[in-house]
Amino acid sequence: MSRHDWILLAGIVFAAAIGFAFQAFFGNPSEDQMLVLHLTAPAYGSAEASAPEDAGVFRGIKVERTTAEALEGISIADLESGGEERYWQIQGANGPLTLHFAPGQGIEIIEAQCPDQICVRTGFIRKAGQSIVCVPNEVMVALQTAEPTKDKGDVDAILQ
Amino acid sequence: MRGKKRMRTSLVKALQVASLLSLSLCLLLTGCGRESEASSYSSTRFLMGTVVSIEIHTNSAAKAVPTKAQLQEAVIGALHRMEEVEAQTNRYEATGSSDCQRIAEAAGTGTYVPVREDLYLLLDKVRQRNHPLIDLSLGPLIDVWDKARESETLPASEAVAEALGRTGMDKVLLSREVPSAEGKGTGQEEDYAGSVMLTQKGMSLDFGAVAKGYAVEKAWDSLRASGLPIYGIINAGGNIKTLGQKPDGSPWKIGITDPMEKTQTMGNLTLDPDEAVATSGDYQKYFEVDGVRYHHLLEPVTGYPGMYNRSVLIVASDGFDTDYYSTLLFLMPAEEALALAEKLPEIETIIVSRENQIYVSSGLKRRIEWTYQGGYSIVTP
Amino acid sequence: MPSFNKQTRISPRKMVLLALMITLSMGLHAAESMMPLLFPMPGIKLGLANIVTVICLFIFYPRDVFIIVTLRVILVGFVAGSFLTPGFWISGSGAILSFLAMAAACRFPKYSAVGISLVGAVAHNIGQLAMVSVLMGNQAVFYYLPWLLVWAVPMGLLTGFSAKAAIKALRKTGLDGTMGMY
């Protein structure tokens, strides 16, 4: 390595250090952080199942734990395009559930084969830590950040 | 000649540096992964008609750090314990083979049905407390209201009255004896802790008022019995219990759902280590007719949903108590409920009445931090 | 030989070398997609294939290197089935930006292969991050930039030293230097 290489290396480290210092000073942009959409449905087997490689991203929302069956009718490129209002179906234990993504409003379940429609009544979720649950269908739609343990804010659990 | 040799040594050096760097990179990658894996484990299941999640973390100060497999075993074991409770008390099991369903099938035939420990204990506990507002024989009435919720129409008052005629704890007989003819040769006879008989045809038991809290308590026992140096939280929707203390010594913080805006919380409550909390709320399962919420918390005397409160939260050390008293206090007028809570040393409560007034028992006043925007007023007696 | 022929005809030797380099970079590119995610963002890669880009910058014209890089990205897209997916655009923008930065850095003879690789690694990460940001319509991902800068150092050193060793080995075979003059 030449002297110039060393200077370059030092420059990169210095730039990173400035970046970290900047972040430490101005804090974490948690409001704007990327969200992960966590889908749990019977088709995915146990809750311990790991996310597949081809998890997609759309408008700051990553869809995880999806299978080909769950995302039937929408490609990852569809999710990618973001910004657009979208509907898609996932398979629950009782039948299909229709999910609706509306820009600026969030995600909701608009149709489900279940007796009391609790999931439909939940309405939109849009913040990390929120979730929609349909117990009869064994489906859970949850929004998380990359660090789900911090989503609950300073709270350890939510009592429903 | 010399130049070539130097070139060669520097080539060897470069290769050495490159391989060292890549090696350290690999170590760094695997190292990071392992560390984050071993320190905690969580699992979520659909159980007992709700989402149950158990989350445990390793106490880093512990001498023997548990492996991931041990953590997993502890969590799965606790969930399995809850499954056992569900297998006995579930009224909706598809196979129809739960203890609870077998009891209902034999109702009115005059035969005692052998039952396992958990179901027996639950019935026995509730009978001993003997409060008219907690009735585990509300099965027929709950069926009527389940149908009403599905069709979103009020049930006919005759239907409610008829179902109410098939309820009553006095018609539930409990015996420590297991009928000898039953379970012989099935290998199950040792599991039976007693037997139950319903004296009237068409009766059925429903453990909804207490089963979840009891199951959370049993899951907690199971985690404790693992002997691992862990702390964590068991969350079964409306029932929570903490396990041990967080490493930084801070109390557990629980967000309380706002009954009017169920995706929001109305405040944060602190919990001590190994403390349980439960809520009964009209927002958990309901349908609306003319702006009135008809929910799942039924009043055993009238046969209609309790109309005094929106939600009742109970803090106690025992999970069963939190579930039992949250249902009981929910069905009482707020002032009376608060007075009862103040009389009982083992429980603390927060009551949100239908008039949007909040009643807090004396032991919780300093443990709650309100975050709601408006719509409620706190009553200080 | 007329001069225009010199521009358009590629000698078989160069063609074989170009193909070899594309294959090599595809292999590295594919290998790193099997590695675990370093960042909580799908598509962000380490940039192992930059080793080949650095080597090529020393033995080919930048124009040829550009072809190698572009073909590599497109071919891996086909092979991995990620063509025109977000992962494709992310790795593509990283690869192209790092090529541009390294080609520019090559003009300063004071930098060795290691220095050029460092520049490439930094540009690679910035390029990827920029594409993630565009795809998600979200600038918050630049929060990870300092982390990616830190990661660029070991990656730049790794690719730099690997490339240096490879260039030296090539030099002995006589395949270097004059190669760009074909």
CATH class of the largest domain in chain B equals Alpha Beta
Give the CATH H-level superfamily of the largest domain in chain A.
N-utilization substance G protein NusG, insert domain
Overall domain count of chain A: 2
The count of strands of chain B amounts to: 17
Q: pLDDT average of chain A, as an integer?
A: 66
What does this structure look like?
The complex is a heterotrimer of chains A (160), B (381) and C (182). Chain A is α+β, with helices and mostly antiparallel strands and 160 residues long. Helices cover 22% and strands 29% of the residues of chain A. Chain A has three helices and nine strands. In chain A, 33% of the residues are buried. By secondary structure, chain B is α+β, with helices and mostly antiparallel strands. Chain B has three domains: 37-91 and 207-244, T-fold (Roll); 94-198, no CATH class; 251-381, T-fold, CATH 3.10.520.10. Chain B contains nine helices and 17 strands. Chain B has helices at 2-38, 68-89, 99-105, 117-129, 139-151, 157-164, 211-225, 319-330, 334-343; strands spanning 40-47, 50-58, 113-116, 172-175, 192-198, 230-235, 239-243, 252-258, 261-271, 276-281, 286-289, 292-295, 309-316, 348-353, 357-360, 368-370, 377-379. A nine-stranded mixed β-sheet of chain B has the order 1-2-6-7-10-13-14-15-17. In chain B, strands 3-5-4 form a three-stranded antiparallel β-sheet. The radius of gyration of chain B is 27 Å and the shape is globular. Residues 14-38 of chain B have low confidence and may be disordered. Chain C is globular. In chain C, helix 3 (50-59) packs parallel to helix 5 and helix 6 packs across helix 7. Chain C has one domain (12-177): Arp2/3 complex 21 kDa subunit ARPC3. Classes of the chains: A alpha+beta (160), B alpha+beta (381), C mainly alpha (182).
